[in-house]
């Protein structure tokens, strides 16, 4: 019996010793690996900059002989924001891990930086984000097969077309406002009455039939007197001429029936300073039946937060853009000026203004949905993709056409 107990005790001690030894070796290796991964010198950084500047033709060479430092799956995923991506005002993304922690992401072992010299070699980064809004003439001279190249965009494809054929078969992940992106970041968010995010999305479904417009909403819209308003600050956009011509046609037709289109801003004859936009929106809520939500760029799925002006201030949007608006707005809640003739648009406006019962039906959606500006980029999905190897990391073969089917007209 004593020999048995001694054997058990000795065996237990051996197991503990071996486990501790294994842990020490494992921990030491992890520290060494991280150290080798992060160590850099001024000479290394000068070489990186030299390689980048030497290669200004937007070509990146895929290297197969590069030996990637061995790391653990739980290690930080280093994401390089190329050319100061996310410097625009809407972004809440910051360097480091803060963004992943702040958004309470399932995976938060990701580290964002725009310091190209953070690691010993550009090929050590797990992913590189290229923001189309920024100057991106210089691209990494070398990449490896395991590296994820991410195309990011908040601005329209018409204003920022991708022209160089080198970008076909180049990106692994798309992170844009387009609803068929790998990671979507629409500029507006649709919620149900339980505050669940339900859209926008490509296969959007809406409640039908919707409940009648509530008495609360009826009281908010019953004292309106003016036909339509339009707040506009960008008079020289890619779509400015077309939308200006359409607005003039609609204005003339409205004048014939003793109605007016009031245009506020640099492109109109009425004043609405940006620092007093709330006063203008209050006027929209109280006095105007319709609002002209004309996009400054015609691109698929490109619907800016301007659509929220009428939606949040009890006016009916008259839309004009490149999007399929059934993905963004409930049926019967808007008038699509790109699908209808100017005469048809004005006819619907006059019909609603003269018939309160018809006008109130445009607001049935208030019983079922709410809208808000998308507050932040979906940084959590980015980290999740880098942590889940099952994600499809193939490249888009005809990327230029996916991003903008009419790219040749803009290049």
Automatic annotation (TrEMBL):
SUPFAM superfamilies: UDP-Glycosyltransferase/glycogen phosphorylase. The keyword Transmembrane applies. It is an enzyme of class 2 (transferase). Pathway: Protein modification; protein glycosylation. The chain crosses the membrane at residues 7-26. It is found in: Golgi apparatus, Golgi stack membrane. Its EC number is 2.4.1.-. GO terms for molecular function: fucosyltransferase activity. The keyword Chloroplast does not apply. InterPro entries: Glyco_tran_10_C, Glyco_tran_10_N, Glyco_trans_10, GT10-like_C_sf. Residues 223-402 form the Fucosyltransferase C-terminal domain. Its main location: Golgi. Residues 77-186 form the Fucosyltransferase N-terminal domain. It is a single-pass type II membrane protein. One of its GO terms (cellular component) is Golgi cisterna membrane. Keywords: Glycoprotein, Glycosyltransferase, Golgi apparatus, Membrane, Signal-anchor, Transferase, Transmembrane, Transmembrane helix. Belongs to the glycosyltransferase 10 family. This is Fucosyltransferase. It comes from Euphydryas editha (Edith's checkerspot).
């Amino acid at each position: 019996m004593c020999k048995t107990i001694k054997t058990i005790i000795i065996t237990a001690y051996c197991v503990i010793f071996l486990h501790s030894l294994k842990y020490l070796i494992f921990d030491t290796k992890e520290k060494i690996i991280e150290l080798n991964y992060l160590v850099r010198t001024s000479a290394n950084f000068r070489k990186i900059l030299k390689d980048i500047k030497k290669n200004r033709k937007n070509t990146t060479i895929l290297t197969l002989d590069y030996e990637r430092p061995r790391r653990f799956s739980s290690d930080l995923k280093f994401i390089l924001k190329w050319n100061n991506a996310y410097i625009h005002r809407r972004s809440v993304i910051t360097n480091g891990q803060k963004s992943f922690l702040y958004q309470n992401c399932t995976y938060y072992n990701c580290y964002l930086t725009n310091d190209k010299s953070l690691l010993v070699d550009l090929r050590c980064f797990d992913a590189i984000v290229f923001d189309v809004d920024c100057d991106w003439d210089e691209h990494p001279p070398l990449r490896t097969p395991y590296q994820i190249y991410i195309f990011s965009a908040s601005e329209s494809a018409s204003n920022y077309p991708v022209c160089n054929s080198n970008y076909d078969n180049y990106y692994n992940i798309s992170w844009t406002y387009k609803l068929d992106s790998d990671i979507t970041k629409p500029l507006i968010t649709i919620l149900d009455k339980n505050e669940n995010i339900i859209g926008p999305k490509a296969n959007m479904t809406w409640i039908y039939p919707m409940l009648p417009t509530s008495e609360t909403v009826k009281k908010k819209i019953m004292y309106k007197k003016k036909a339509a308003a339009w707040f506009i600050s960008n008079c020289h956009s890619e779509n400015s001429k077309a939308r200006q011509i359409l607005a003039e046609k609609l204005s003339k037709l409205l004048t014939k029936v003793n109605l007016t289109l009031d245009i506020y801003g640099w492109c109109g004859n009425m004043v609405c300073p940006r620092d007093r936009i709330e006063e203008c929106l209050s006027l929209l809520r109280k006095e105007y039946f319709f609002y002209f939500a004309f996009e400054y760029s015609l691109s698929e799925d490109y619907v800016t937060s301007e659509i929220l002006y009428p939606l949040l201030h009890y006016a009916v949007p008259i839309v004009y853009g490149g999007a399929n608006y059934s993905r963004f707005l409930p049926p019967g809640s808007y008038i699509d000026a790109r699908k209808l003739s100017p005469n048809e648009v004005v006819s619907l406006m006059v019909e609603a203004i003269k018939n309160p019962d018809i006008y109130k039906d445009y607001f049935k959606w208030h019983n079922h949905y709410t809208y808000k500006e998308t507050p932040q980029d979906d940084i959590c999905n980015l980290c999740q993709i880098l942590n889940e190897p099952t994600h499809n990391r193939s490249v888009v073969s005809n990327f230029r056409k996916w991003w903008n089917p009419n790219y040749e007209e803009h290049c």
